């Protein structure tokens, strides 16, 4: 029987394991941490009964994918829950903007910029299923929907600062800025619109849902599927070299590229080793989880109903902050993402005490303490917030890496989203998952389609492995 070992149990490692096991492969997953899940873990980080997502909190690109359609995660307990407002952006003096599932409702709230919002996102949202069929795969393929992908690409290739000129009001420009900032790139750089366009369109097509009971529900569902197909997960096992494994037919590495190069060692072809060790990581994040009495008192009313709130002021302010972080300097007013998952999933709360998830963009590996500036940024748009804080849990960029080694320097998107890596991560190759060593594959979020499309990197890598297995069996006499 064909045997596989998966090193790492993040959502991509588990997706790879499930895909292989469903094809009849004997699969064992090895995880260094005490529990599986990687970025999809949930814990009582502040007070008993409050459930905080430890990293991944919202999943717009995981709702309807080839992986989620192939495997019934709902049968193993996964339930998606949507907030009324998918994401919002408060401005000073109580102004702000909100993104709803409906393009029309969002556009109506943007007043004179509504027409331009419809022009950018309306056409894309109606065709996003076909577009994702192409961009959830490696870029070196013949597109199934070339004209639709080209229209998406025309917008995605633009610097965010250029695309933002489509809107004239501070509200609309800020609403786009918050989504674009997820790329952790300067707004003047090429392709810095790509993540904002993808996430903004996904909000209208799929919403920005949370997993009921926390993101760990995704992990539990994948482990349940794996167990059903005969696979196993062993925690507390650190693998430092392929020599420690019992010569499996397939090795899946749900690790960062440089870590993969260390694990494979001298077996790795020199050009692949160079590509993996030169892989670039982007800025980090500094995360604070809060226990808050009665929620955050946002002046902007729609932000009280939003699952995600982007905090940072105007488009120009966020552009300045992202540029500073990219240059290795910590801004006094950084971009802060606030997660209010409990708005969609009240099961995470305890009475009137709610869990709040917040992180600021910081330089990679930054060693300072951003707790004060995060609280000041939230307080700026929600006076009285600090008075409602009952408890805090802090993880710096370095501590995030200690908690999950794939987050090098606190880089939770597992790679700089510059023009080259956004398209050809982790290296330029027709099959970027295969590492040039028979049976050895990289399946982490450092491979296509990247972070945010939970499970698709692992699913794609496993399909590559199964395809090569079939080709080898055909070649045998």
UniProtKB/TrEMBL annotation:
Fetch the Gene3D superfamilies from UniProt: FAD/NAD(P)-binding domain
The signal peptide annotation in the UniProt record is none
Tell me where on the tree of life, at the top rank, the source sits. Bacteria
* PANTHER family linked: DEHYDROGENASE-RELATED, PHYTOENE DEHYDROGENASE
**Protein name as annotated:** Phytoene dehydrogenase-like oxidoreductase
Species assigned in the record: Saccharomonospora viridis (strain ATCC 15386 / DSM 43017 / JCM 3036 / CCUG 5913 / NBRC 12207 / NCIMB 9602 / P101)
């Amino acid at each position: 029987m064909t045997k596989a070992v998966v090193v790492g149990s993040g959502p991509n490692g588990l997706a790879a394991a499930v895909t292989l096991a469903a094809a009849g492969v004997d699969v064992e997953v090895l995880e260094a941490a005490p529990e599986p899940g990687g970025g999809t873990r949930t814990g009582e980080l502040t007070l008993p009964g409050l459930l905080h997502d430890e990293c991944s909190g919202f999943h717009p690109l995981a709702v309807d994918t080839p992986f989620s359609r192939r495997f019934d995660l709902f049968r193993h307990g996964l339930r998606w829950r949507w907030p009324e407002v998918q994401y919002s952006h408060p401005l000073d003096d109580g102004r702000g903007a909100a993104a709803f599932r409906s393009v029309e409702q969002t556009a109506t709230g943007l007043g004179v910029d509504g027409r331009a919002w419809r022009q950018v996102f309306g056409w894309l949202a109606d065709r996003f299923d076909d577009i994702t069929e192409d961009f959830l795969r490696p870029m070196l393929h013949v597109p199934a929907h070339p004209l639709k992908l080209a229209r998406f690409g025309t917008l995605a290739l633009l610097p965010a600062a250029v695309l933002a000129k489509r809107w004239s009001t501070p509200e609309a420009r800020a609403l786009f800025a918050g989504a674009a900032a997820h790329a952790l790139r300067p707004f003047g750089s090429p392709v810095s619109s790509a993540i904002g366009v993808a996430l903004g369109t996904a909000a209208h097509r799929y919403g920005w849902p949370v997993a009921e009971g926390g993101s760990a529900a995704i992990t539990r569902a994948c482990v349940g599927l794996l167990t059903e197909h005969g696979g196993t997960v062993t925690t507390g096992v650190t693998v430092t070299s392929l020599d420690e494994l019992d010569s499996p037919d397939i090795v899946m590495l749900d690790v960062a590229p440089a870590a993969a190069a260390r694990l494979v060692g001298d077996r790795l072809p020199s050009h692949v080793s160079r590509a993996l060790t030169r892989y670039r990581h982007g800025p980090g994040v500094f995360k604070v989880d809060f226990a808050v009495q009665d929620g955050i008192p946002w002046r902007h009313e729609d932000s009280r109903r939003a699952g995600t709130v982007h905090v940072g002021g105007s488009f120009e302010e966020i552009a300045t902050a992202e540029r500073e972080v990219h240059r290795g300097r910590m801004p006094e007013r950084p971009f802060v993402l606030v997660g209010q998952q409990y708005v969609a999933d009240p099961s995470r709360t305890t009475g009137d005490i709610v869990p709040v998830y917040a992180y600021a963009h910081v330089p990679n590996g930054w060693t300072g303490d951003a707790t004060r500036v995060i609280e000041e940024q939230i307080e700026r748009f929600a006076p009285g917030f600090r008075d409602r804080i009952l408890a805090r849990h802090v993880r710096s960029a370095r501590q995030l890496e200690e908690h999950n080694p794939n987050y090098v320097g606190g880089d939770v998107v597992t790679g700089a989203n510059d023009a080259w890596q956004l398209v050809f991560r982790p290296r330029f190759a027709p099959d970027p998952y295969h590492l040039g060593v028979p049976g050895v594959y990289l399946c982490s979020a450092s491979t296509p389609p990247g972070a945010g499309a939970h499970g698709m990197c692992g699913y794609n890598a496993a399909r590559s492995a199964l395809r090569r297995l079939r080709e080898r069996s055909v070649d045998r006499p």
